Amino acid sequence: MLSSWGRLAGGRRLLPFLSPRLVLARPPCQVVCWRALGSVGGIADAVRQSVGADPLRGWLRDRSNQVSHAERENAKASLFLRPTEGLQRRILEELEVCERQRTSQQPGYFEEVGGFSYYESKGEEDDDLPRICRRSRRTGSDQGEELVLLDLQDLVDLHGYVGLGAVKPSGSGKCAFLLELGQAKEEYAVFLHDGNKILASPVIERAVAAEWHGHDDRFLYYTKPNALGRPHQVLRRDLKTGLDDCLIHEEADGEFYLDIALTKDQQYLTITSLSRRSSSEVHLVGLTGGQGGGAGKLLLTPRREDGVEYFVEHNGGWFFILSNDRPGSDFHVFAARANEGFDRKSWVTLAASGDDFSITDMEVFETHLCLYGRAPLSGQPALRVLPLDGVERNASKNGRVPDTVPLQPPGVPFSFQSAVNNDFRAKVLKFSLSSPLMDSTHYAYDMANQVLEATHGGRHDLESPFEAELLSVTGRDGTRIPVTLVYSKDSPPSKESPLLMQVYAAYGINLEPEYDPSVHPLLRRGWASCLVHARGGGEKGRPWYHMGKGRAKMKSVEDFQDAYLHLVTHGLCCPDKVAAKVHSAGGLVAGFCINNPYPCKFKSVIANAPFVDLISVMSDPSLPHTVGEYGEFGDPNSDADLEVMAKICPYSNVRASQDYPAMLVRTSLEDTRVPFWSVAKWVEKIGRLNSGQRDRLLLLTDPEANHHGRGGYRGPLLEASLDNAFLIHTVEQEHTQQKI
Q1: How far is CA 619 from CA 142, 623, 640, in A?
Q2: Are the beta carbons of 414 and 439 closer than 8 angstroms?
Q3: At 474, which helix (H) or strand (E)?
Q4: CA distance linking residue 466 with residue 491, whole number of Å
Q5: Does this entry carry the keyword Protease (predicted)?
Q6: Which of 157, 290, 407, 453 has the most CB atoms lying inside 10 A of its own CB?
Q7: Could you tell me which residues are beta bridge partners of residue 362?
Q8: In contact, 679 and 670? CB cutoff 8 Å
Q9: Which residues contact 648 (CB under 8 A, 6 or more apart)?
Q10: How big is the CA angle at 97 (ends 96 and 100), to the nearest 5 degrees?
């Protein structure tokens, strides 16, 4: 479950924009009021008809129209932002100073495999991407000579864009790198480092995940994507013979995708079929019955069921199963004998979620079971460790109670990130903590002696010029919503303070209150920043996610609105100086709010790759990810789902003659998750129906970005400097609108 270390390295992907051309004639726009259409079936039929009749749909799907539209909108944005160029430069200098201080820290060891320690090292120049290195694991002061396995900056200089999906060291000293070269498609080629050098050609052309196995690392298991990018097959590559790959498993259901992982004891390969309907099942491949072949495929978990999930580990003849007992409920940890049947009635309970601890994941070592979770009341991360001194004893009423690891003082918002703890026999658990006041700090927890030690990392909280509070906001239905508020010690929030609000609320992903230097220029200028941990995220456990997905998506919106009201009514901001910043799925929440400006009256909005054309995207199964997202956002083939989708869809509900906020909307022509045309026509529709505000509606198509923004060292800094300057300019400063 806990994936191996991986990140997007980013880089420069130069899109050859064509020279300016004549603007093509643009079709008219239309407004549909779903509320006037009556019954559920009537609304659904009207919505389906509107998708095909949308005049902007075909126009912006034409590639030449996309390029010319991006050119024109970029020129307009450049003119609007020209007065902020000096401010952008000053903010960029501030961010660069902070980044140099961060990268000057000692490298963090992220994985130890075989006789080597693998880690990330700073590049030769300040603005270089990092290098992946290793040293021999030796005792004493002699750590062995550093060997550079992969220099990301060299690859960027050669290919223009590099995405690093994962680093997979093997026990014999080889290392597999999952790399995107030249283009961001979220699928990778697998390159090998044989211990001496990285091979020039990939051993696998298309993969999403990979795992080693076999004597001398002869075999590579990997997941292969289909034409839409969905990992649908698991294959085994024999690196010694080079024979055709062996198909291990195939997933035919378009709503499910495959993921693979080795159990920590290396006894099994787990093949997990997952869907956004919170459903999964696991197949196991035994790896001890021969070289890479093993005992064949074995179905462990019960057949897939909507709302019920299974994830599996192995230890000492027992399978450890992370699962929930009913749809939408919290996870528990069960155990089943490996040599017996897998009827759920025979499972024993090792650890259960409760009122004070919601289990979200597990890590199984030879002598300990680590439970990752959240505190359901506060939404804060939590960690518990259970000694494994006999499964039967642990499962009995007299078994050991898990040890609670003290992570942070109560009330201090923070984030938790597990390290790659691949050593099955390890007695120490490695992880890192971060907070809005402190950069990532690495910790080692001695599980046997219950001793927590900081190994290296960020400054102590007391040295920070900022303050952070964890607020608990009461929503309209009585739900307690966690909100992280950050501000400067010199400028506590007041009725005059500008405020930046952020929200995500999707996929059960936490909006982590981590160290974020990108907002520091605002905080130093008297702003406050807040993160709204709305339903749909995972901050308060698995039920919190289910409360804000699918037909319950409006709860995410309500939480965001209620947080806004709380901050305004408690005098923590000026209601005329509130801005919002969202990314991807967070665009649904912010997009709804700007169409319906009570209670959230935003002065300015930044939307990066916002998912705002919900109906059109989810109605097109030929797009990557669409079918797999039915469980998250709704199935347009269901009338009941489509009615909810129609009400919340930002694009479908754009209003005429309304005061929209100033908007900076980023997109990319190569975004495979949120299509360019879906973002561009949203901005275009707002502008056409509110023509007097077009100059303040900026669509910025960045040729050096993908769905996650710009990569590399300077990319995120340039984005942050522009964002901050835009917010200050549109929220605090008066400006003269310039007509293009």
Answers
A1: 60, 9, 14
A2: no
A3: strand 466-474
A4: 9
A5: yes
A6: 407
A7: 371
A8: no
A9: 553, 554, 557, 588, 592, 614
A10: 80
Question: Around Cβ 709, how many Cβ atoms within 10 Å?
Answer: 20
pTM greater than 0.85:
yes
Query: Concatenated DSSP letters for 9-57?
Result: -B------PPPP-PPPP--------GGGG-SHHHHHHHHHHHHHH-HHH
For residue 357, the SS3 value is coil
Domain count, the chain: 1
Token pair of 254 as six digits: 């378009």
DSSP 84: G
- The residues, any chain, with a CB within 8 Å of residue 473's CB and separated by 6 or more, are 480, 481, 482, 483, 562, 563, 566
Q: How far apart are the first and last CA of the chain?
A: 51
* Token pair for 83: 């007065």
Q: Alpha carbon of 61 to those of 24, 51, 185, 453, 625: distances in Å?
A: 13, 13, 19, 55, 18
H or E stretch at 446? strand 438-446
Helix (H) or strand (E) holding 665: strand 662-667
Closest Cα to residue 188, out of 218, 162, 211? 162
Under 8 Å CB-to-CB from 29, ≥6 apart: which residues?
55, 56, 684, 685, 688, 689
Backbone angles phi, psi at 685, to 5 degrees: -65, -40
CA distances from 142 to 146, 186, 411, 563 (A): 11, 39, 43, 54
Residue 578: predicted pLDDT: 98
Q: Which helix (H) or strand (E) holds 97?
A: helix 85-103
Q: Is residue 715 part of a domain?
A: yes
Q: Which two tokens stand for residue 158?
A: 């050669």
Entry field: residues in the chain: 740
Judged on CB neighbours under 10 Å (0-12, 13-18, 19+), 53 is exposed
CA–CA separation, 239 vs 241, rounded Å?
Answer: 6
Q: What is the pLDDT of residues 489-535, one digit of tens each?
A: 999 999 999 999 999 999 999 999 999 999 999 999 999 999 999 99
Q: What angle do CA 570, 575, 576 make, to 5 degrees?
A: 160
612 φψ region: left (φ > 0), alpha (ψ -120 to 50), beta (else): alpha
**Do residues 678 and 665 lie in contact, with contact meaning Cβ atoms separated by under 8 Å?**
no
Can you give the pLDDT at residue 581? Answer: 98
Q: Give me the pLDDT at residue 38, please.
A: 47
Q: CB–CB of 301/312 below 8 Å?
A: yes
The sheet carrying 147-151 orders its strands as: 109-113, 116-121, 131-136, 147-151
Name the stretches of the chain with pLDDT < 50: 1-40, 106, 290-295, 397-399, 734-740
Flag whether 563 is in a domain.
yes
In a domain, 637, yes or no: yes
Residue 89, domain CATH: 3.40.50.1820
How far does CA 398 lie from the centroid of its chain? Answer: 40
- The pair of three-digit structure tokens given for residue 24, joined into one six-digit string: 């093509």
Pick from 493, 698, 501: which is nearest to 582 by CA? 501
Q: Check residue 100 and give its pLDDT.
A: 80
Give CA–CA dist 674/660, Å, rounded.
22
SS3 at position 183: coil
pLDDT in tens, 687-723: 999 988 999 999 999 887 788 887 777 889 999 999 9
Please write down the long-range contacts of 486-493, taking CB distance under 8 Å and 24 or more positions apart: 486/436, 486/513, 486/519, 486/523, 486/528, 486/529, 486/530, 487/523, 487/527, 487/528, 487/529, 488/523, 488/524, 488/526, 489/465, 490/465, 491/523, 491/526, 492/467, 493/528, 493/571, 493/572, 493/573
Using CA atoms, how far apart are residues 112 and 96, in angstroms rounded to an integer?
32
Domain that holds residue 509: 65-96+463-732
Cβ atoms of 394 and 452 closer than 8 Å = no
Cα 365 to Cα 84: distance, rounded to the nearest angstrom? 54
What is the pLDDT, as a whole number, of residue 458? 59
* The pair of three-digit structure tokens given for residue 178, joined into one six-digit string: 């999952």
Bridge partners for 257 per DSSP: 274
